[in-house]
Amino acid sequence: MAPKVDYATLSNAVLAQHFMPRIAVPDHENWLAEDLARSAPLRQLPGVGRDLRYGPGQRQVLDVFPAATPGAPILIWFHGGYWRALSKDYYAFLAPAFQSAGAAVVLVNYDLCPLVTLADLLAQTRSALHWVRTHASEMSGSGDRLILAGNSAGAHISAMALQYAASADPAPLAAIRAAALITGIYDLAPVPRIPVQEELRLTEADIGNLSPMHLPIHTHVPALVAVGAEEPELWIEQSARYHAKIREAGMPAEYMCIADRHHFSITRDLADSTAPLTRAMVRLLET
């Protein structure tokens, strides 16, 4: 595995340029607004389960896009937003491509920092996995065929789910068949030195305990690690280094650095069933 970047040698301003996507992509609000507009009508389609509650938290709700036939794999999507912004409502546009490929799709909301800690947030998302497994048949899915996926913070959430020991956590690890980690952050070391720390309030212990880069992997499943080639260099470096880590741990893992895509454009490919990123994720449905 490549050596860890020495973030201590970099200024806070440099770290912000590399690890604040909203700085790296000045027109990010346009991308987000378009995603929300594309997603809104899809959430209103017949058969879609909207805002189904999986826990007591204010935002512990999810949307279900059922499969066409019983026993289907279930793609569980965790949204980005640096654990303190956005929601599932921005990502309904990705559901049709995976429904067409034979999957049910679940988009998960969770309470945001600073209302909850990052550790609490991760516990909520593990509760979502339990809910999906329990209610799988209601979406024509199989509770033993869960594919985790997410972008940015959602990729971190999915990676963390792979690294909880079954003896220490009740998450249904045996049901996880694959993971798609898109433009994620896996080493939290830079985060306390950039503006999002005001809301995240990470502690020194959080850096070690909640960084997938530094934790053992307990669920060895096929994985996809994807990042846009137009992301900042150090953001790309984290994806490359995490991919190397899971490969060394024995996971069958694919790495994609996608040309002409940045932090907010890469997920747009998931509306296109012919895009290489979508095709790579569809292959994971077959595991």
Automatic annotation (TrEMBL):
Domain Alpha/beta hydrolase fold-3: 75-263
Keyword Hydrolase attached: yes
Superkingdom, taxonomy of origin: Bacteria
Gene3D superfamilies: alpha/beta hydrolase
Keywords: Hydrolase
Pfam families hit by this protein: Abhydrolase_3
UniProt GO molecular function: hydrolase activity
PANTHER family xref list: AB HYDROLASE SUPERFAMILY PROTEIN C4A8.06C, KYNURENINE FORMAMIDASE
Protein's name in the database: Arylformamidase
Naturally occurring in which organism (per UniProt): Dongia mobilis
